[in-house]
Amino acid sequence: MQRCHGFLNVDKPRGITSFEVVKRVRRFFPRQKVGHLGTLDPIAEGVLPLAVGGATRLIEFLMDVTKGYRAEMVLGGVSDTQDAWGNITVVADELSFSLSDIEKVLELFRGEILQVPPMYSAVNYRGRRLYELARQGVEVSLEARPVTVHLLQVVQAELTQPPYRVILDVVCSKGTYIRTLCHDIGQKLGCGAYLTKLVRVFSGPFSLEYAVKLAEVEERLAAGDCSLLLPLDFPLTSMPKVVLENENDVIRLKNGNNISINAGLAAGPVLVYTLDRDLIAVGHLAETKGKGTVLKPVKVLGTQ
């Protein structure tokens, strides 16, 4: 396949890791880099954006995006992995509270909250992944991390007979573990809870509505069809743009040099284009004494 650069909005199936998705897509780009923009657990499905080729150099600018999920949890038990794929212990055979009680508890988890990462996660602890330690039966004391839950609401609840299921819509900041959120809600309710299903419906500008099933992605890439790839600037459209009309400025910027420019924009990050509208870099505009506005290259896009 010819060299292609851009983003893939993949609909990840349940049951495989994010790394496996990357591995399967990378087969079609043997001389290029491929990476994902945020891990999804194997139990989860939905939006998993991938970066191909030069797009991998933009991943660092896309890690803080807000994400949205549809989550299903079961009340009345706890899991050592905080989801349905772990060892489950029944805590309550019957529930002694109502939907309104659940709503009151959810209020405690909206806004900025503190969350302790689960042991079965890819968090790095002293050079090792937590899930590696968990599989060896090693427990470590972890500090709670601040995350933000922008939206947390009940979509559906079945509380009359087991299994007691609650479906939630969640919009949150990066680094939020939805299975931990479900576990912590269960602890506050006093009955325990664990995640049974999770769908990521959006990650920044990448939405499930326009995501492509992994099987279709593989089929089309195998046929040499690169039209699935979204442009390099697709997830960065809110960033101001600068067009370099002088070819010498393009060359100097590509070589890592600052250039003086009259952009008419405020200081800050910008996307830098050639006159042919090719994205060549992420830059930063800064005011300097005696030189006016200077454009500094932050990340020059090559052919990864």
TrEMBL record:
Known catalytic reactions: uridine(55) in tRNA = pseudouridine(55) in tRNA
Record has Ribonucleoprotein as a keyword: no
EC number of this enzyme: 5.4.99.25
Molecular functions (GO terms): RNA binding; tRNA pseudouridine(55) synthase activity
Domain of life from the UniProt record: Bacteria
Entry annotation: catalytic residues: 41 (nucleophile)
SUPFAM superfamilies linked to this entry: Pseudouridine synthase
Class of the enzyme per the UniProt entry, highest EC level: isomerase
tRNA pseudouridylate synthase B C-terminal domain location: 179-233
Keywords: Isomerase, tRNA processing
Residues of the Pseudouridine synthase II N-terminal domain: 26-178
Any one GO BP annotation for this protein: tRNA pseudouridine synthesis
Keyword field contains Isomerase: yes
HAMAP family found in the cross-reference section: TruB_bact (MF_01080)
Summary of the function given for this chain in its UniProt record: Responsible for synthesis of pseudouridine from uracil-55 in the psi GC loop of transfer RNAs.
Protein name as catalogued: tRNA pseudouridine synthase B
